[in-house]
Amino acid sequence: MRIIIPKEKFLDVLKRTNCVINPRPTTPILNNVLLSAHGDKLKITAMDNDMTIITSTGALIEEEGDTTLPSKILMQIVGAFPQGDITLETDQDDEAKLTCRNSFYKIHGLPASDYPEVSEQVSDWEFSMPTRELMRGLAKVTYARSTDESRKQLNGVVLSIRKGLTTLAATDGRRLALQENQQQEEVSNEGDYILAAKVSTDLAKCMDDSSDKVNVRVNGSYAVFETEATTLMTRLVEGIYPNFRQVIPENCGNTVSVPRTQLIDVIARVSLIIQGTSNPIRMTFKENSMVISASNAEAGESKESIEVAYEGEEITVSFNHAYILEPLKIMESDNVSLEFGKQFAPLKITGEEGFLYMLMPMRSN
Predict the structure, then answer these.
(1) Does the residue 120 lie in any domain?
(2) What's the pLDDT tens digit per position in 137-187?
(3) Is residue 364 part of a domain?
């Protein structure tokens, strides 16, 4: 094999495939990526037990061939090269020589024939959605999934296709993040599919965002995401995802609108006094004011108010400050709506089309 490829092109496809590599693979060859140079394309494949990614890019192929090279060191080398064209040449012993301007490396690979074959997945049905919609949706909800390994279904993100809506949702039992969009094309089937923790976190890193649409194919065990240059296959989490829709109240009773960045800044300042503790922050709503406060028996207390349009009875609710900041930081709107009820009722955050966040309160000290 002998190819010439611009550094940025090579690095881009290696970044996509590297996110699939497991740091503790079941077999040594899964530390490697499979490189296949044919025609005018360089195709790179990476896999672990649950995910496989195949992506390609244009390259000058002077000699066709296949090999496998260690993913991590290959990406580090390509990233360290100066700007310019990289020449990659391998011999019959899968020893690779990489040069770029005055830089040279030689690394040892393994035969392509030793790399596991990619299993083609037969889909029950398929649909497509805007690539940006999928990536933004995952970013809006993934942080809310559970990290408790005993709750496999809640470790992932559910992709729900129902009644003309595509919904991405995640919950850990204390909070729920949900992004819902109208389907732009008619979809004949319905279903809920649980994406594993790894793919829900890494899908955006793996897919090429140059494609307008991503085609999604599903069956009972696998989901396949395809763009023009990249195909990612992932095993789905078995089981039934909890009915998250039933915990969403239609009306919490009270609503205030708050500038999003101001709310972030105030919560960040007030919560400094409780850093390193499990103490909550308190939100007190009273006439034309929202007071955010916190206290720490050892360090002291803090308080700051925000002017809001509120005329109801005085209500104080307590929450984990980090759990409030996470959705606020990922949102993009200028203002957010906070919907709340009595002291121990959940908080509902909205403000962007299709996005909703629910958070259960904490017992205040």
Answers:
(1) no
(2) 999 999 999 999 888 899 999 999 988 899 999 999 999 999 999 987 777
(3) no
